[in-house]
Design brief:
alpha/beta; six-stranded parallel beta sheet; 49% helix; 26 helices; 640 residues; Rossmann fold; homodimer
């Protein structure tokens, strides 16, 4: 079969149909009609008297068997989603912290500290002195103090929360009783209070959800920062994105999931094994590609090309040229196991808490991580030999990506302009209106929305209105795949003022071209980087986060992690757009609190708007109102 | 209205119908037909691509939109239930431990150590020396070490697990990797691995559920033991049970929920306030009654009569004579708020994590617990004055209850026979066959089963077959309400051999009558007491728990806590009967592991049998097979 000439992934979807392979879109169609009770959040399966369902039309039951009404049921279900999202992000961070602890105790055989400067910065951030301590001692203390955030007995707020938000925000969180002292307790609190016959007050439940979401934020700070210590803080790097990064003449290995602990090692061992691959007939040797957020992790730190974000993960196998998919945790469709069986593709699971029937499980233990990584690469080479070349179909379209915009790298870059106050150029341009504001795009893909469509539509509108965009996770994947993370995109999409700023900054920073208009900040746990940047700007301006001309958007949200992130965004005072209604509209009360009532509590709130053009308009309005409130030039007079 | 002459609660149910008040049974009827997907566990609401439903007949989708099949979906849903149950029990224990920490630090204004001997025993159990330490230091160390079980960073197993099971069992749990080092981590582990795209392996998921359930057991040990330290270890006490304990001429206050922290204080302040009540016209003063497990807590320690277990909690208000219901956490139907509104009844919520719209929230803080308790009693007296006496209807039937059979009290009692080896009389009688075995009844009521029917039917059958019964939680409530916890019950229901043993033991222990055939061990967290007794017997015999002629039963299970308990029972190697199918039969694989495959892993397993007579027959068979395997007289030859 010849290479596909299509611009899109549609050719692979057609191929799946020819081969009678069900993809996520097919399963979605077959699942219709979806259960309306579940979609509205008014299905309760919390005890065995039921399940119960509230009639949304008011004709049937308005209370569950225990007497819980729609408000209680919706709030409970929602905060259990936050509890899961928080657990997922936070245990990712805990794995990293445990690894750093091993490194500090010199018991790791595999890992080391790649970024000593970051380690010292991090130590300072959480109140650990570094004088007269060697790097191992600092690492041990940082890891241990980070791990204490997961199990603190005393009531002080988490170390990783206290100094990473503005002082005003911290005070507000503490006054509201939603500054957690312990990440894992904030999860068990939810699972306990949602037990049958416990908390029935929807507002009280939502406050517990807010507290848990702040714990989610805390866990994400740990994940990001300690990953940087172990694997390096991202600096701008040039790479490519799209399924086209899979090479017909290479042994292709996809790393997929979220946790960089094993993928980093795989990237490390590949060099030693190139010859084996070439000997096996792969002219271009071994080609690692990324999927989902593990993809983002290795893109940012190693320049590994990104093959796909969440929704099209199955298509990587459909190319017929993927020899192995190595997965860690989160957002791995179990379907990949069955689809891999239709090809030569080997599927490897690597984490004890994420096995998939049909996959080969090669667990990541520190002691044998390198051996297992080599084993995986070797088996991938064997799989390459089994390829049915007649089944290969790789889309052509490639997109250049400039990624790696950690706050540190932005400061480094801008420091070339003003070494004393590196953020000054951004602040000056926000104040003078060349940059109207900033929107952080995060979150997933959802099969209910044409893949990446909302991201791209919204971004074009916002950029044209001189709004700078930051992106993480599958949002970043969407922009990378759609050629919006390179200098050409600035030329193509940025409004005149934003374009001139990005061109100037690119020039002053010693680049030959404009900065991209969408800055890739990392995987979905790296939303903490967006906060770091915002907190730096707010502190520099002497304001709180809610006052900045700043908003967040998850226009294609899908996972419980996205619910957790969206919630802490509002908890930090930032408006959060979401592109589809989460399962809350069975309770006008809960929906009202989230979209409006929250303003009086945390200053943040949700904006639910499925239409991406409308959504962009709303965010522009939010930003202009925030500008007006700051008394900086605004296109409207009304303040928020 | 005159007093009801009915033997049952049916008169109050009729009254509710007359007054057009919906009760739990009405809401159940209105909810029918229940959602079959939910009942079978094959509904997935874990991400926002769905909700998804697996077609149990095989015609429609066999996979969710992500590709997860019924096995994965059922296992995920089930272990999230375990996570909630574990959180509920464990945070109860954590509250108690935090209170003990305050007492130890001399910062509590309300609580003190009531049982110093138990504190010292407990210290020894978790490896804390007591020599040269005052009681406060011991309390602080015990509390702190208990709290470490909630957040341990290192990998050692929880302190409260290590020495409370048999050495053989501990080794087995550790070899299986299901001996938790940290209670709360075992919950977040579940919430993380069940996140979309993480663990898809049903067996791996179930193992995580097992580990979490062992954490549940650990948290229950903490709850029970530290409650005993603060409030006293139960000793046999005589009281009464049924709605009839509500008195027409008294200010009636029901304490309802699970955590004794506030109810104990309410009982304390009542004496000071009797005069106020009498002055208000309540000839019999203030009458505290118990509902659910808070009821069991104060029954065991203070002899407070038990008005109701879970399912009939609403009827306490329907009597028209309940002036206040004071609730803490868990198993409180939100419906009580609406029903209380139809009467003078004041509803008070007292815990920050359990509010109910319509209730007055008077939070329990150590500093003002007594003031709040008095406030509650005073408002109850005011409510008494507002009573509509024409609406009073109190069932007549009262049942004598002998409760308070902690393992310590059993040892004290039997110590009168053999001071050296107090458990010897039980062991000897088990060995000679006068006691064939022991069944621990636990768990809830469920509206799907005629209230208490399964408990009573099974117990009569088992007792007639010379099987001794222990009971906790709403199971104990069922037996208390149905007159099976007194000496007459031994005469009425025990088989000849068991009767003679109970009569002899009662006599030798200095009682005037036989011991009751069903021993009330406490609230549902006090299932740990059943384990303590079983572990003592096993250690004395030099066998593991799975070898004892012992089984557990939750014949009317309802809550997620019951799922957690049932699971750890099997984890400890003990067969667990349940009287209705939990939401797992959408996956024959998961159902098969739980009812059969587990035997090869932990020796324990679930027996699902809705028919109580059949269930009793099956448990008798289990016990006789265990006897055969121990080479002690058995009615069958086959061994398990």
């Amino acid at each position: 079969m010849s290479k596909c000439s299509s611009m899109s992934n549609q050719c692979l979807i057609n191929k799946a149909e020819d081969e009678q392979i069900d993809l996520v879109w097919d399963r979605y169609e077959k699942m219709k009609p979806l259960c309306g009770f579940g979609e509205k959040g008014i299905c309760c399966r919390i005890c065995m008297k039921g399940p119960c369902r509230i009639d949304p039309f008011g004709d049937g039951p308005q209370e569950g068997i225990c007497g819980a009404n729609a408000d209680t049921i919706v709030a409970r279900n929602l905060i259990r989603m936050i509890a899961s999202g928080t657990s997922a992000h936070s245990l990712h961070g805990k794995e990293i912290a445990k690894t750093l602890l091993k490194v500090g105790r010199k018991t790791s055989e595999t890992y080391s500290i790649k970024d000593e400067a970051k380690l010292k910065t991090v130590a300072g951030k959480i109140g650990i002195t570094t004088e007269n301590k060697d790097i191992y001692q600092i690492a041990e203390e940082v890891a241990y103090k980070s791990l204490q955030d997961y199990g603190r007995i005393e009531e002080d707020a988490c170390s990783w929360l206290r100094n990473t938000v503005t002082p005003m925000r911290m005070e507000k969180l503490q006054n509201l009783g939603i500054a957690p002292n312990n990440i894992e307790s904030s999860v068990t609190d939810i699972m306990s209070r949602t037990h049958v016959g416990t908390d029935a007050d929807p507002v009280n439940l939502l406050l517990a959800g807010l507290r848990c979401s702040i714990a989610d934020y805390t866990g994400m700070q740990i994940s990001t920062n300690l990953s940087d210590v172990l694997f390096g803080t991202p600096e701008p790097v040039i790479s490519e994105a799209n399924l086209s990064v899979i090479k017909e003449d290479a042994v292709n290995i996809a790393v997929h999931g979220h946790n960089p602990l094993l993928s980093e090692i795989i990237v490390d061992v590949v060099d030693e094994m190139q010859k084996e691959a070439i000997d096996a007939g792969a002219k271009e040797g071994i080609n690692i590609v990324g999927v989902c957020c593990t993809g983002n992790e290795v893109l940012l730190r190693r320049g590994i090309p990104l093959a796909s974000n969440y929704l099209s993960q199955e298509l990587t196998i459909l190319t017929g040229a993927l020899d192995a998919m190595v997965v860690d945790v989160q957002c791995i469709m179990p379907s990949v196991s069955k689809i891999a069986d239709c090809y030569q593709t080997k599927l490897f699971t690597t984490m004890p808490d994420a096995k998939i029937p049909g996959a080969e499980h090669l667990e990541l233990h520190d002691a044998d991580a390198r051996d297992n990584a080599k084993n995986i690469v070797r088996q991938s080479i064997e799989a390459f030999k089994r390829r049915d070349t007649s089944k290969i179909l790789i889309p052509k379209e490639k997109n250049k990506v400039i990624a790696g915009f950690s706050p540190e790298s932005i400061v480094n870059l801008l420091g070339k302009i003003d070494q004393e106050k590196p953020l000054r150029p951004i602040i000056d341009n926000i104040v003078n209106g060349n940059i109207r504001g900033i929107v952080l795009f995060a979150g997933c893909n959802n099969v209910k929305i044409t893949q990446d469509h909302n991201y791209i539509t919204m971004a074009k509108e916002l950029l044209a209105n001189d709004i700078l965009i930051l992106a993480t996770g599958c949002g970043a994947g969407a922009f990378a795949q759609n050629s919006m993370m390179n200098s050409q995109a600035t030329t193509d999409y940025a409004g005149e003022n934003l374009k001139s700023v990005l061109t100037l900054l690119g020039h002053e920073a010693g680049l030959e071209a404009p900065l991209p208009p969408v800055l890739h900040m990392g995987s979905c746990v790296d939303n903490s980087r967006g906060v770091d940047l915002a907190v730096s700007l707010a502190n520099e301006l002497g304001v709180d986060l809610n006052q900045l001309p700043l908003a967040a958007s998850a226009p294609e949200l899908m996972s419980e992690k996205a619910i957790a992130i969206g919630t802490w965004v509002t908890g930090l005072g930032i408006p959060a757009h979401i592109g589809l209604m989460p399962p809350v509209d069975g309770s006008p009360l809960v929906a009202g609190v989230l979209t409006s009532g929250l303003k009086d509590i945390t200053d943040g709130y949700f904006i639910v708007e499925p239409d991406p053009t409308e959504a962009a308009t709303k965010l522009i309005e939010v930003i202009e109102k925030k500008r007006a409130a700051l008394n900086i030039p605004s296109k409207i007079k009304e303040r928020v």
